[in-house]
């Protein structure tokens, strides 16, 4: 008999009963985020038939031109989460400061950070994109401030993403492994399809934007050259390459079949540690990857141990199959 598939709601209720990892307020938060992702998926799927493609004619705090879907997704997540009483505040790639829950609503104990639309350069060409989210507890004290968000990634209580691809799939951890749910559009609910995603320790597949090769630091250049040398080279095996330019899609592939993803520091912007953002891209993805048996560093230390100093700070990201991430990290540390 095929295993009875359960919904996200039933999975969260059972997890709450079993090990208390998901207090009621956190369960409510995760269900609201999932519902918001369903709405974003619906907007994404309209494409040219909805008014969702192209640019919005504005710039975000990162200095990026905002796409219409960046703003739509941001608004969907804010409107879905502000009234439920589970959150004190939110922060987003698309907003300058934090968004405090308005006084007309009850204040909760959680902080929600998100990249509402990841992979924006793929929106208009119908390639997989997604939403990334990270949940932390608000530190004790009455008021909420930006400082409350500046906690290292190991303080997360939930992290996940929703990938809007051929399937709409939600991937989530609350600290007890990584679960995957696929949206059943007829029923309108996310259905559990995998309970313990694991990343093989070894891989033959690397993901990096090769056009930046001339800007990389030596350890990264050495690692990729060795991969490109194939079985005749020091690695003794051939490698394959993938680069989707949506972190969500690249990480989803790695959680599904292994691989190493790198967006390292490069000398195009030497004063920035990297392109990706720590609070709502690197931290949630790093926790998911570690929960699936992989590793995630900035070349020198574990991403989840980094102490943030600002909301939108950037970080160099090396994550995925543990043995490959360890190798690249050792190259950075001069241990090999
Ligand atoms: P976002 O669309 O949220 O700004 O993030 C895009 C990020 C990430 O999703 C992806 O891995 C990376 O940018 C791609 O960068 P390049 O276009 O430089 O390859
Ligand atoms: Mn962006
Ligand atoms: Mn992003
Ligand atoms: Mn984004």
Automatic annotation (TrEMBL):
<protein>
    <recommendedName>
        <fullName>Fructose-1,6-bisphosphatase class 1</fullName>
        <ecNumber>3.1.3.11</ecNumber>
    </recommendedName>
</protein>
<comment type="pathway">
    <text>Carbohydrate biosynthesis.</text>
</comment>
<dbReference type="InterPro" id="IPR044015">
    <property type="entry name" value="FBPase_C_dom"/>
</dbReference>
<dbReference type="InterPro" id="IPR033391">
    <property type="entry name" value="FBPase_N"/>
</dbReference>
<dbReference type="Pfam" id="PF00316">
    <property type="entry name" value="FBPase"/>
</dbReference>
<dbReference type="InterPro" id="IPR028343">
    <property type="entry name" value="FBPtase"/>
</dbReference>
<feature type="binding site">
    <location>
        <position position="93"/>
    </location>
    <ligand>
        <name>Mg(2+) 1</name>
    </ligand>
</feature>
<dbReference type="GO" id="GO:0006002">
    <property type="term" value="P:fructose 6-phosphate metabolic process"/>
</dbReference>
<keyword id="KW-0460">Magnesium</keyword>
<feature type="binding site">
    <location>
        <begin position="118"/>
        <end position="121"/>
    </location>
    <ligand>
        <name>substrate</name>
    </ligand>
</feature>
<keyword id="KW-0963">Cytoplasm</keyword>
<keyword id="KW-0378">Hydrolase</keyword>
<dbReference type="GO" id="GO:0005986">
    <property type="term" value="P:sucrose biosynthetic process"/>
</dbReference>
<dbReference type="GO" id="GO:0042132">
    <property type="term" value="F:fructose 1,6-bisphosphate 1-phosphatase activity"/>
</dbReference>
<comment type="similarity">
    <text>Belongs to the FBPase class 1 family.</text>
</comment>
<feature type="domain" description="Fructose-1-6-bisphosphatase class 1 C-terminal">
    <location>
        <begin position="199"/>
        <end position="333"/>
    </location>
</feature>
<dbReference type="InterPro" id="IPR000146">
    <property type="entry name" value="FBPase_class-1"/>
</dbReference>
<dbReference type="GO" id="GO:0005829">
    <property type="term" value="C:cytosol"/>
</dbReference>
<comment type="subunit">
    <text>Homotetramer.</text>
</comment>
<feature type="binding site">
    <location>
        <position position="275"/>
    </location>
    <ligand>
        <name>substrate</name>
    </ligand>
</feature>
<feature type="binding site">
    <location>
        <position position="118"/>
    </location>
    <ligand>
        <name>Mg(2+) 2</name>
    </ligand>
</feature>
<feature type="binding site">
    <location>
        <position position="117"/>
    </location>
    <ligand>
        <name>Mg(2+) 1</name>
    </ligand>
</feature>
<dbReference type="GO" id="GO:0006094">
    <property type="term" value="P:gluconeogenesis"/>
</dbReference>
<keyword id="KW-0479">Metal-binding</keyword>
<feature type="binding site">
    <location>
        <position position="209"/>
    </location>
    <ligand>
        <name>substrate</name>
    </ligand>
</feature>
<dbReference type="GO" id="GO:0006000">
    <property type="term" value="P:fructose metabolic process"/>
</dbReference>
<dbReference type="Pfam" id="PF18913">
    <property type="entry name" value="FBPase_C"/>
</dbReference>
<dbReference type="GO" id="GO:0000287">
    <property type="term" value="F:magnesium ion binding"/>
</dbReference>
<keyword id="KW-0119">Carbohydrate metabolism</keyword>
<feature type="binding site">
    <location>
        <position position="115"/>
    </location>
    <ligand>
        <name>Mg(2+) 2</name>
    </ligand>
</feature>
<feature type="domain" description="Fructose-1-6-bisphosphatase class I N-terminal">
    <location>
        <begin position="7"/>
        <end position="195"/>
    </location>
</feature>
<feature type="binding site">
    <location>
        <position position="115"/>
    </location>
    <ligand>
        <name>Mg(2+) 1</name>
    </ligand>
</feature>
<feature type="binding site">
    <location>
        <position position="281"/>
    </location>
    <ligand>
        <name>Mg(2+) 2</name>
    </ligand>
</feature>
<dbReference type="GO" id="GO:0030388">
    <property type="term" value="P:fructose 1,6-bisphosphate metabolic process"/>
</dbReference>
